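Retry 2 of 3 after timeout on previous attempt. Resubmitting structure tokens to design endpoint.
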């Protein structure tokens, strides 16, 4: 007969798992702050077929798409400390590389992965913009920055918002792999509690519920934002 679930353990561990949300959100927010502008700029290089940069962006996207994020995590978490330690030792810089908090490596790997995803999101959105709109903006005296800020970017956001929502939700879920870097996020906190009495089923149910709630709230926030952008849909469609 299968063991019954320990609901008291589930309740206690649920609140422990909740305490990992700030770390998961911090990684998500920082990764988005880095990858949004980078993804947009690299998408422009691909759309405009800028020599070298366009090819590099294409290879970058192919690499990220063709490798599991857990492999990217292991590469970053094992190679960056080694490289930094070698550099600091060579130049006699007194920094304890192996004492660096794992959240910094999480910022790197998730920004790296998300940027590649957003390149394709923005490239797809840019393809919906007619070239004549930029030419018209230049004709009335707008600079490139003004044209993109006032005309192009609002339209891109309207088109890209559903994919941006998906990318953000997937990023939040991907932070659950931060345990591989000993990052004290939702999953690791629950697993540590489960290790005491081997209550792994209960712990993973808690993780499931926490991520379900968190991702649902993010999707709801994007829907509210999409309603705010309805005026642009009316103007540009």
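Retry 2 succeeded. Sequence:
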């Amino acid at each position: 007969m299968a063991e019954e679930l320990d609901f008291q353990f589930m309740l206690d561990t649920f609140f422990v798992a909740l305490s990992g949300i700030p770390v998961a959100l911090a990684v998500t927010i920082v990764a988005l702050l880095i990858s949004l502008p980078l993804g947009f700029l690299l998408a422009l290089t691909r759309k405009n077929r800028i020599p070298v940069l366009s090819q590099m962006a294409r290879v970058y996207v192919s690499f990220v798409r063709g490798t599991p994020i857990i492999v990217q995590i292991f590469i970053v978490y094992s190679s960056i400390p080694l490289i930094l330690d070698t550099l600091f030792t060579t130049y006699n810089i007194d920094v304890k590389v192996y004492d660096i908090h794992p959240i910094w490596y999480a910022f790197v790997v998730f920004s790296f992965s998300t940027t590649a995803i957003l390149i394709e999101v923005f490239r797809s959105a840019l393809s919906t913009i007619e070239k004549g709109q930029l030419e018209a903006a230049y004709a009335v005296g707008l600079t490139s920055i003004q044209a993109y800020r006032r005309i192009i970017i609002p339209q891109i956001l309207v088109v890209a918002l559903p994919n941006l929502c998906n990318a953000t939700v997937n990023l939040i879920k991907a932070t659950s792999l931060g345990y591989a870097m000993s990052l004290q996020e939702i999953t690791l906190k629950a697993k540590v509690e489960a290790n005491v009495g081997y209550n792994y089923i209960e712990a993973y149910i808690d993780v499931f519920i926490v991520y379900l709630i968190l991702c649902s709230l993010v999707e709801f926030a994007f829907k509210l934002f999409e309603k705010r952008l309805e005026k642009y849909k009316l103007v540009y469609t």
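Attempt log closed. The first helix runs from residue 7 to 18.
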